[in-house]
Design goal:
The strands form three sheets. This protein has an eight-stranded parallel β-barrel with strand order 7-8-9-10-11-12-13-14, surrounded by five helices. The chain has a four-stranded antiparallel sheet with strand order 2-3-1-4. Strands 5-6 form a two-stranded antiparallel ribbon. The protein is 33% helix and 18% strand. It has two domains: 62 residues, Alpha-Beta Plaits; 251 residues, TIM Barrel, CATH 3.20.20. Helix 6 packs across helix 7 and helix 10 packs parallel to helix 11. The structure holds phosphoenolpyruvate and manganese (II) ion (MN). The site of manganese (II) ion has 5 residues, from loops. The site of manganese (II) ion (MN) has 5 residues, from loops.
């Protein structure tokens, strides 16, 4: 089985293109990564029938590696160094720490502006806020839609802050990409393969949330759906999973997923303790736990008046709580040797 062709450091352009042509001739898609030292060519598809000998004998080839995992582009085997994603100047990935904060839903210009101004002043680099809302009940508040998108654009431009907002369907990808710096794919859509492929075709960072009942391998395979289309800017987000006990918490925040994902994949891992617990009083301790476990960032729900929020008020921090969160995490982020 052949998955990765490692070229010699002095391989010529011609030798690289011969390998690429051979991959295409076999009916597969090549994925070329040019490092500073050498070029690595990945073979995308079901490679079980390809013998490594086919490539090992070619000029310029140093090594042929088989990746036993189903997810290849997402795996550490394929890409050993950590992926750092530059979101219009803000770096996300190992060595950095980013706070994304804002309301669950965009409710009005005033609400978003007020929240954005506050979280920015306290150190959040990215404003969150959904306008297309996936809700359990179709009778709940489903977001302001395209009107909300206009608000996001206005606030973003006024305050010069980056934004992340959710995209629920393939039809929304284009309009959301025009405004949002990062596209969020929610827990319910993690398994929406057509949507994953669609966002894989654009050149924009995607934050993929773990489905509430997805295994780690399923999560990584879904990231692979995006990567295989050519978009390598994928950020993973642990947001809690379902267990037998929902008496006191909404979900169980899977903290072990953080070091585990960091081991399995080169992609950045951020944590959402708001949905992960469903309770504002648990957000600070679980944020600290996530940072200690190696998270590269946090996604936090903040509302000027959580008691009046149209969605997820119970888990949203008010401004004072957000200030306390920032105060408590800054020394911890420093201790973990991450730049904020
Ligand atoms: C959200 O971030 O507001 C959200 C709906 O998250 P999730 O998809 O994780 O439930
Ligand atoms: Mn929410």
């Amino acid at each position: 089985m052949a998955d990765l062709i490692i070229m010699k450091s002095d391989a010529t352009k011609k030798e690289i293109s011969q390998v690429v042509k051979k991959i295409e001739k076999l009916g597969f898609k090549p994925h070329i990564s040019k490092g500073t030292e050498r070029t690595i060519i990945g073979i995308i598809g079901d490679t079980r029938g390809i013998s490594d000998e086919l490539f090992r004998i070619m000029p310029g080839v140093s090594e042929v590696i088989s990746v036993l995992k189903e997810y290849k582009l997402a795996s550490r085997e394929f890409h050993q160094s950590d992926t750092i994603i530059d979101v219009n100047g803000v770096k996300i990935g190992e060595g950095y720490f980013v706070v994304m904060a804002g309301p669950c839903s965009v409710e009005s210009k005033e609400q978003l502006y007020k929240t954005a101004k506050h979280v920015k002043e306290k150190g959040a680099k990215i404003l969150r806020g959904a306008v297309f809302k996936p809700r359990t009940s179709p009778y709940s508040f489903l977001g302001l839609g395209t009107e909300g998108l206009k608000i996001v654009k206005e606030v973003k431009e006024k305050l010069n802050i980056l934004v992340i907002t959710e995209v629920m369907s393939t039809e929304e990808v284009e309009i959301v990409s025009e405004v949002s710096d990062i596209l969020q794919i929610g827990t319910r859509n993690m398994f929406n393969y057509r949507l994953l492929e669609r966002v894989g075709k654009i050149n924009k960072p995607v934050l993929l949330k773990r489905n509430f009942s997805a295994k780690i391998s399923e999560f990584l395979n879904c990231a692979e759906y995006i990567l295989k289309e050519g978009n390598n800017k994928v950020i993973l987000c642990e947001r809690g999973i379902r267990t037998f006990d929902s008496e006191f918490t909404r979900n169980l925040l899977d903290l072990s997923a953080i070091p585990l994902l960091k081991k399995e994949t080169h992609l950045p891992v951020v944590v959402d303790p708001s949905h992960g617990t469903g309770r504002s009083d648990l957000v600070i301790p679980m944020s600290k736990a996530a940072i200690s476990a190696g998270a590269d960032g946090l996604l936090i729900e903040v509302h000027p008046k959580p008691e009046e929020a149209l969605s997820d008020g119970f888990q949203s921090l008010n401004f004072e709580m957000f200030d306390n969160l920032m105060k408590e995490i800054i020394p911890l982020v420093k201790f973990m040797k991450k730049k904020m």
